[in-house]
Automatic annotation (TrEMBL):
Taxon lineage: Eukaryota, Cryptophyceae, Cryptomonadales, Hemiselmidaceae, Hemiselmis
Name recorded for this polypeptide: Protein kinase domain-containing protein
Protein kinase domain sequence ranges: 30-252
Organism: Hemiselmis andersenii
One Pfam family recorded for the sequence: PK_Tyr_Ser-Thr
Record InterPro entries: Kinase-like_dom_sf, Prot_kinase_dom, Ser-Thr/Tyr_kinase_cat_dom, Ser/Thr_kinase_AS, Ser/Thr_Kinases-Pseudokinases
GO MF term list: ATP binding; protein serine/threonine kinase activity
């Protein structure tokens, strides 16, 4: 069910509170069937939870900071309910064989992977109508986040964080860098190719920074290419800081 403009309760899903929450999943009921992505935080797996195919984000917790990041992402996901936001199915806390706390976030499984992967796969036919709908899906998800009270800034909106299901529907995922807007913020985060100039320049920013990132995603949908080509972090950053988006010459 879509909820627009509702209020958010913050910090409800602490690690200690998982056992008492309705989101708890028993580790014995969760089967990890294939690794589908790897990141600095841990891994993402295709899984099966009591007959439901799911995606499982595994986070190895070695420090208090790791724990806080897990709590923040899980708590936020538990409060988001929209057709264009990846839905939380549950969370699991488990002692790994390596001796650290293994935290698992169980979510929707999106069959086609990320939008970025879909766009660079030239064997995948995407009509203009399909790409238009993909753009609309992402916009609706972003509008929902910004309509909440307080607004939620994704802060890393990009094609790798937009997931695609078997019907080419798009949902926003990966809320590890998201935060509630408290007036304005100055913390740098995100991926330079998609990051707004004001963020790269260390200036205050708000939901408009997500809108810039969304604009880069629109360029990707039109060009089916990587923004700024193979440019280095410095080259990309310099272009973005100057307010120069990706070149329109690559758009058919």
């Amino acid at each position: 069910k879509q909820r627009v403009g509702g209020g958010l309760r913050r910090g409800l899903l602490s690690a200690d509170g998982i056992a008492e929450s309705g989101w708890r999943i028993e580790r014995d009921n969760l089967l990890l069937t294939a690794k589908i992505a790897r990141g600095a935080f841990g891994n993402v797996y295709k899984g099966n939870w009591l007959g439901t195919v799911c995606a499982v984000k595994q986070i190895d917790v070695w420090s208090l900071q790791d724990l806080r990041e897990f709590e923040s992402e899980a708590a936020l996901l538990s409060e988001l309910h929209h057709p264009n936001i990846v839905q939380l199915l549950g969370v699991c806390r488990h002692q790994s064989a390596q001796g650290c706390q293994e935290m698992l976030i169980v979510m929707d499984f999106m069959e086609k992977g990320s939008l970025g992967e879909v766009l660079i796969d030239r064997t995948c036919e995407l009509s203009w109508q399909t790409r238009r709908q993909m753009a609309l899906d992402a916009a609706l998800g972003m509008r929902y986040l910004h309509s909440l009270s307080p607004p939620v800034l994704h802060r890393d909106l990009k094609s790798p964080n937009l997931l695609v299901d078997s019907l080419n529907r798009v949902k926003i995922a990966d809320f590890g860098l998201s935060r509630f807007r408290v007036e304005y913020t100055m913390t740098f985060c995100g991926s330079p190719k998609w990051t707004a100039p004001e963020v790269l320049n260390g200036e205050t920013y708000d939901t408009g920074a997500d809108v810039w990132s969304y604009g880069v995603v629109i360029w990707e949908l039109l060009a089916r290419n990587v923004p700024y080509g193979a440019g280095t972090w410095k080259v990309t950053g310099a272009a973005s800081e100057a307010g120069d988006g990706p070149s329109g010459r690559q758009v058919p």
